[in-house]
Design brief:
Blueprint lengths: L8 H8 L3 H16 L8 H30 L3 E5 L3 E2 L4 H8 L2 H10 L4 H5 L6 E2 L3 H15 L4 E6 L7 E5 L2 E5 L12 E12 L2 E6 L5 E6 L2 E13 L6 E11 L1 H9 L3 H12 L16 H24 L8 H4 E6 L6 H12 L4 H11 E4 L10 E3 H7 L1 H21 L4 H7 L2 E2 L5 E3 H7 L3 E4 L2 H9 L3 H6 L4 E3 L6 H7 L2 H11 L20 H26 L8 E6 L8 H17 L8 E6 L7 H18 L8 E6 L4 H7 L5 E4 L11 H7 L3 E4 L5 H8 L5 E2 L4 H9 L4 H6 L2 H11 L12 H9 L5 H20 L1 H13 L6 H13 L9
Parallel strand pairs: 1-4, 1-12, 4-11, 12-13, 13-17, 17-18, 19-20, 19-22, 20-21, 22-23, 23-24
Antiparallel strand pairs: 2-3, 5-6, 7-10, 8-9, 10-11, 14-16, 15-16
Helix pairs in contact: 1-2, 2-3, 2-5, 3-4, 4-20, 7-34, 8-9, 10-12, 12-13, 12-15, 14-15, 22-33, 23-24, 23-30, 23-32
Bound molecules: pyridoxal-5'-phosphate.
Pyridoxal-5'-phosphate binds next to helix 7, helix 25 and helix 26.
Length: 828
């Protein structure tokens, strides 16, 4: 260490000390020197900022040491490329991972502040839509906790996922201005910037050695600037980094225009450049052919790859040929898949490697994680748009394709139909570039995200590729971090676990198995119920504040929170609620186990039916919650603005987890895992990771219903007629009639017509086919709930057997099987 690197002896303790006293002094320092407010004008949000900065200082020391150690050792680094990182609030997680929660609480108390109030001041960075972005965030937590060197690369959207409000039962979108009060976690790196080229054309030329080469003359250049957020591991020194790229205008362009006298053109250039990272596209699944979205994807991938090659250049005794030994590049879905062509361009055009060498490096470095089988969600770019935007990349993709299809012909001689199917250039509905195929061809490892999903990949969308390269395919079942989704969000459960199985579960979630014997202990069951009850009371407080609806924490809390989508079938849940409502109205004397149905989730702003589903939930809720003959047994709430912060209150309060997608449609799900860890029982189909959840929990501790993938396919193949299911089931017919007839909409027969007509005449996700099975299963849930001890036993066993679903297990598998990234013992 040089003197420059060493913290001065007096600075050391205020910047790095982990005691309550050092933290208190650090907060006071930051209040004065970073925030600059007189003591009398301080509010909790100022203490939030000061504490966040103090915590960041402490991580920064580990960050420097982590980088230095892995440079010294020549360790391999994972680069996780993802268009979304749904990080959630950072302060609580960082205090937990640094082991300074109590110190922070005490430090603030001495300053007259309450930690919980200060934590509540944080505006979460909503830089993701849902599961995919949250998975990336869980994986960063596990990589750091497992001491694996890693960089997350993504986009610093100025506006994240919209804030959802509910007005008159309808979703209203509000812009998410998350940076308005600054972001204490990030460190701007204005000196880390790269040019991103766009548009224009290509030219051929001979280099000094007379070799034919290609030059890309762009139509415009945008600059990407790095913003770094430290990612602290739990209980270790390892502190990795999330590097998010922000767009800004290239100065020289603006000056050019200025010199010619066109000042306004210069300003416009700056404004349009900066729109690149302005806003996150709020679509979860269906793809839209938006040029700006392609630019966003290319922008962050190009910056990230240039950054990686730049790091390689700075390493002594390392050549670019060693890239696969030093970096693993993982594509989180197809959003970053343009990276395959961009790395080829950087290696062939800029580094002047020959094609075969560059291709070998590219394939050895990239891995691809597929996240969806929905055909409409597989990214395809219209060829015209693609070629105008990325002319050089289109040429490179044609070259990749031509060599690839020769390989296919060599392995399957005479099978031109197969060659046509496997082309990276799609021919139906106008030519397109098929990004999932590009990602597959450019990667040495391709994985799905749950056992079922990985099998379906091999037999459907990537079948031809599996037949060509079976050894490249594997499964990596998703996981979630128990630090955030148990320790941080469920302090009651955390204390119970610490006492019964010891605190090792935070990093070895398998140890929850130690709970199993307690499932038969009446005293422990009572403690378990008390813990759940407290969590439900905490959620009920939030629900009444947000919606005005009072919930009784002794009721069964039945929760479905996730993006609103037809395939996730929130409307199937509603059909059961209306069924129960009708039964109660017809027969007010019947005994129904009291249940609160809680929904949350955002609908893509342009997704017409999803928005109607929200309106249906709120309309049914309004009717039921205000009807004294049923509100003794049923309540229905739609909790606005489901995000990570609310998730902390929601998952721990559930008795029942709704995982009711059409079999074959949900790749994995991760919400299902969060519920299970927190002791909810699942009602679910054999879809995604539900299959494995049921295997782990035991079939007797899982409420299974619905068609299997094979049955879904057979029904569709035979020509599915929803009318058959209505005719066969008078209860279903009357439920649909009630909704269509305007019962929940003040007589308005139009508002829900599109939804009901869709079910009656099309029903692409087989809601009606699964209805009878679902309602019957819900009746079994109600019966089971009545036996409190049996329910508690099942609940304890679900938590006890959730160890597999830790993201630590998932990340260990990625590191061992795909990335070859080893733990690094960070020395300070
Ligand atoms: C876990 C999570 C999701 C994903 O939920 P699924 O049920 O797997 O679709 C979406 N949004 C947030 C905020 C989450 O925490």
């Amino acid at each position: 260490m040089t003197d420059l690197d060493a913290p001065s002896p007096t600075a050391e303790r205020a910047r790095t000390g982990l005691s309550a006293d050092a933290l208190r002094r650090a907060i006071v320092d930051h209040v004065r020197y970073s925030i600059g407010r007189p003591a009398a004008a301080l509010r909790p949000e100022h203490y939030y900022r000061a504490l966040a900065l103090a915590v960041r200082d402490r991580m920064q020391d580990n960050r420097v040491a982590s980088t230095q150690t892995s440079l010294d050792l020549g360790s391999k680094v994972t680069c996780y490329l993802s268009a979304e990182f749904l990080m959630g609030p950072q302060l609580g997680a960082n205090l937990l991972n640094l082991g300074i929660e109590n110190a922070a609480r005490a430090a603030l108390a001495e300053l007259g502040q309450d930690l919980d109030e200060v934590l509540a001041c944080e505006e979460e960075p909503g830089l993701g839509n849902g599961g995919l972005g949250r998975l990336a965030a869980c994986y960063l937590d596990s990589l750091a906790t497992l001491a694996r060197p890693a960089i997350g690369y993504g986009i610093r959207y100025e506006f994240g996922i919209f804030d959802q409000e509910i007005h008159d039962g309808w979703q209203v979108e509000k812009t998410d201005n998350w940076l308005v009060n600054g972001n204490p976690w990030e460190i701007a790196k204005p000196d880390v910037h790269y040019p991103v080229l766009w548009g224009g054309h290509t030219e051929r030329y001979a280099d000094d050695a007379g070799v034919q080469r290609v030059r890309w003359i762009p139509g415009r250049i945008i600059q990407g600037v790095a913003y770094d957020t430290p990612i602290q591991g739990y209980g270790v020194k390892t502190c990795n980094v999330l590097t998010l790229w922000s767009a800004r205008a290239v100065q020289s362009f603006a000056l050019d225009a200025f010199n010619t006298g066109d000042y306004y053109k210069a300003v416009e250039e700056e404004v349009t450049s900066e729109t690149v990272t302005k806003v996150l596209y709020p679509n979860d699944e269906p793809e839209v052919g938006k040029r700006l979205r392609l630019l966003q994807q290319f922008f962050f991938v190009s910056c990230s790859l240039q950054h990686v090659l730049h790091i390689m250049d700075d390493l002594a005794d390392v050549s670019v040929l060693d890239l696969p030994k030093r970096f693993a590049l993982q594509l989180n879905d197809t959003h970053p898949s343009i990276g395959v062509a961009e790395l080829m361009r950087l290696l062939v055009d800029e580094r002047r490697l020959d094609w075969d060498t560059a291709w070998a490096i590219t394939v050895a470095t990239f891995g691809y994680t597929n996240h969806t089988l929905l055909p409409e969600a597989l990214e395809k770019w219209p060829l015209g748009l693609f070629g105008e935007s990325l002319p050089r990349h289109l040429e490179i993709i044609y070259e990749i394709n031509s060599r690839f299809l020769d390989e296919v012909r060599a392995k399957f001689p005479g099978d031109e139909e197969r060659v046509r199917r496997m082309s990276l250039i799609g021919e139906d509905n106008g030519k397109t570039v098929k990004m999932a195929y590009l990602a597959t061809v450019g990667s040495h490892a391709i994985n799905g995200v749950a056992a079922l999903h990985s099998e379906l990949l091999k037999s459907s969308v990537l079948k031809d590729f599996y037949e060509l390269w079976p050894e490249r395919f594997s499964n990596k079942t998703n996981g979630v971090t128990p630090r955030r989704f148990v320790a941080l969000s469920n302090p009651g459960l955390r204390a119970l676990l610490d006492r019964t199985v010891g605190d090792g579960w935070l990093t070895h979630l398998d140890r929850l198995r130690g709970l199993e014997p307690f499932a038969d202990d009446p005293g422990f069951r009572q403690e378990w119920r008390d813990m759940k009850r407290a969590n439900k009371a905490r959620l009920a407080e939030f629900v009444v504040a947000e919606t005005g609806v009072e919930l009784d924490p002794t009721w069964l809390f039945d929760i479905q929170v996730k993006r609103i989508h037809e395939y996730k079938r929130q409307h199937l849940n509603v059909l059961n609620i209306v069924t129960q409502y009708l039964r109660l109205k017809k027969n007010p004397g019947i005994e129904i186990a009291p249940r609160a149905f809680i929904f949350g989730g955002k609908a893509a702003p342009g997704y017409f039916l999803a928005k109607r589903i929200i309106k249906l939930i709120t309309a049914v809720g309004d009717m039921i919650n205000n009807d004294p003959t049923v509100n003794q047994y049923l309540k229905v709430v739609f909790l606005p603005n489901f995000n990570v912060q609310n998730a902390h209150l929601i998952y721990p309060a559930a008795n029942l987890s709704e995982q009711i997608s059409t079999a074959g449609k949900e790749a994995s799900g991760t919400g299902n895992m969060k519920f299970m860890m927190n002791g909810a029982l699942t009602i679910g189909t054999l879809d995604g990771a539900n299959v494995e959840i049921r295997e782990e929990a035991g079939a007797e501790n899982f409420f299974l219903f619905g068609l299997t993938v094979e049955e879904v396919e057979a029904l569709k193949h035979d020509g599915y007629r929803p009318a058959d299911f209505i005719e066969a089931n008078p209860e279903l017919a009357s439920v649909l009639d009630l909704i269509a007839g305007g019962h929940f909409s003040h007589g308005d027969t139009e508002v829900f017509r599109p939804l009901v007509d869709n079910l009656r005449y099309d029903d692409p996700f087989l809601v009606l086919a699964d209805y009878a099975s679902y309602v019957e299963c819900q009746d079994r849930v109600s019966a089971a709930w009545k036996d409190r001890d049996a329910w508690s036993r099942m609940s304890i066993l679900n938590s006890a057997r959730s160890g597999k679903f830790s993201s630590d297990r998932a990340i260990e598998e990625y590191c061992d099987d795909i990335w070859g990234v080893r733990p690094v013992n960070v020395v300070t």
